[in-house]
Amino acid sequence: MGTNDKPATETVRQSLGLSLAALGVVYGDIGTSPLYALRECFYGSHPHPATPENVLGVLSLIVWSLLFVVSLKYLVFVLRADNRGEGGILALLALLNPWGGGERASRRVIITLGLFGAALLYGDGTITPAISVLSAIEGLKVATPLFQPYVVPLTIAILVLLFLIQYRGTARVGALFGPVMLAWFAVLALLGIRGILMAPEVLGAFNPLHAVNFFIREGWDGFLVLGAVFLVVTGGEALYADMGHFGRPPIRHAWFGCVLPALLLNYFGQGGLLLLDPSEATEPFYHLAPTWALYPLVLLSTMATIIASQAVISGVFSLTRQAVQLGLSPRVRIVQTSSEEIGQIYIPSINWALMLATILLVTGFGSSSGLAAAYGVAVSTTMVITAVLVLFVMRERWRWHPLAAWGLTFAFLAVDLAFFGANILKLEAGAWIPLAAGVAIFLIMTTWRRGRELVVTHLLAHATPLSSFIAESAATLPQRVPGTAVFMSGRLFETPPSLIHHLEHNQVLHRQVVILTILTEDVPRVPAAERIKLEDLGFGFFRLIARYGFMQIPHVPVILRECEPLGLVTEPDTTTFYLGRENLIPTRRVIGMALWREKLFAFMARNALQATAFYNLPADRVVELGQQVEI
């Protein structure tokens, strides 16, 4: 009996540990929304008087938004749409594999929606750290107005420090995230209970009729408040993207067992405070705390918002890696910060761009209320796109009956589109900023992918079949020299142009010639046992295919070492790597893209990370051979 109990006990302990860790990584964003969400409903860009009817109506909207959007849509249904355990909109797009489905219109719709939704998350990644940290530091103003001039400088200092330590990775401090957020949610619950005891009648907001009556009573103004109510669910898309770190069960356990009860209690507590004293609408979260607890609460809020910001930053890093591996972005420098956790990465260029953007947002808007007016458009748009993509998953992958799939999707879209409509009205208040950032990233992604297609088309038009090249080499018997030559090739059956140029100019071939093709699969990870395929083509030629998932980073020297048991033995000191480099020439003579997009593509190609660094090649053993390509 004891033997059977031990594994069960260990499983429970492991599940609790993962659920605790999920609190820090997954729920930082949605968990810090009580700092500003309810305040914006009564003190934001479209304020409503904090009358008892309005308080109960808005609270009812908040409660049912959390239950329907986060609990039902994301936790129950969307989390099922995983790509071998990975979530997020690019993982969802790869699961549908629209690139391999021909030229059907639905395929193009899926690609466009998926790429645009992914691009919008970059806009969210810039505004979330800014609004989170700024709203926490603003608690100092509640303690004393003397802190007013220092709120923005303190916020900027904290954000700069946060981005400066990114290169160290989150592995060392990650163990603290869960306990800190557990303390945060405990404090949220305690503060909420304190507010509920002030006005227990606030619990009546569970009745959805209060929300219905609010809309009937307020009309168009009631619809506008949805832009502020939406702030309570903005972390829904992030928890889906972070699913790969922990899996579905820990994320669900953490939500239903800790996060949701704490959030509901706190929102009810803030509502109880407003029922008692409507003038507290300026900072209802901080006014819930007794005076002696204000400074500790600001400190804890700051720590919670830093953790929330860290989760968003890490999510943007992960999204960028997926985009690079799926051929949607130029290569960038990706640093693995942990030898144990593949998700622990650091991308310098993205890090500094995010830091600059968040500083500009904090400086430009100056307050979390100003930022709240700009927040929500990108996330609400992505939520609409996710609902549409999940519809395709229901029909194509899960084989649901059309009535069930469309019925559930219409229910999701009815809510998502209402939130989107309320948020799109914030454009003049600054909501165009994250939207513009998303459009810019979308343009980069589509231009890069289309540009690569044009380059491949050009190369294929001038390609020589590999079998023909080997047969000709065997017939002409070029001189062979000791060592191994590895030619990188993006295509399986064509001769790499660098190999042809090498033979034409040097008139020799190495004793071993390896044609290496690295393929990125539409799955997060490819197991090591399934990664390598080696084929002896004769006459000293080998075709080597290495398959990686879109969450993995190729490492060519490791690939070659793993080939030794298969019969391909290479010595690092006598192995030379040959890379092709295209000199792109934008021109109107070739049917492709608009000239300005071709110039943008050429600029990105010139500034992309060199293959030497991306594939971890030894720089002193690399030879690059270029050719001109008109696009």
Please give a structural write-up.
This protein is α/β, with parallel strands linked by helices and 631 residues long. The protein has 2 domains: 396 residues, Amino acid/polyamine transporter I; 173 residues, no CATH class. Helix content is 61%, strand content 10%. It is built from 27 helices and 8 strands. Helix 6 runs antiparallel to helix 22. The protein is elongated. The termini are far apart.
List keywords for this structure.
single chain; 631 residues; alpha/beta; Amino acid/polyamine transporter I; 2 domains; six-stranded mixed beta sheet; two-stranded antiparallel sheet; 10% strand; disordered N terminus
Approximate strand percentage:
5-15%
Catalogue the unreliable spans.
Answer: 1-6
The CATH superfamily of the largest domain is known as Amino acid/polyamine transporter I
Tally of individual helices: 27
Distance between the termini: 71 Å
Mean pLDDT: 85
Biggest beta sheet attributes: 6 strands, mixed
Name of the CATH architecture of the largest domain: Up-down Bundle
Helical proportion, percent range: 55-70%
Taking all Cα atoms into account, the compactness measure Rg is: 28 Å
E-strand count: 8
Q: What class do helices, strands and sheet pairing give?
A: alpha/beta
CATH C-level name of the largest domain: Mainly Alpha
Number of domains: 2
The dominant shape is elongated
By oligomeric state, this entry counts as single chain
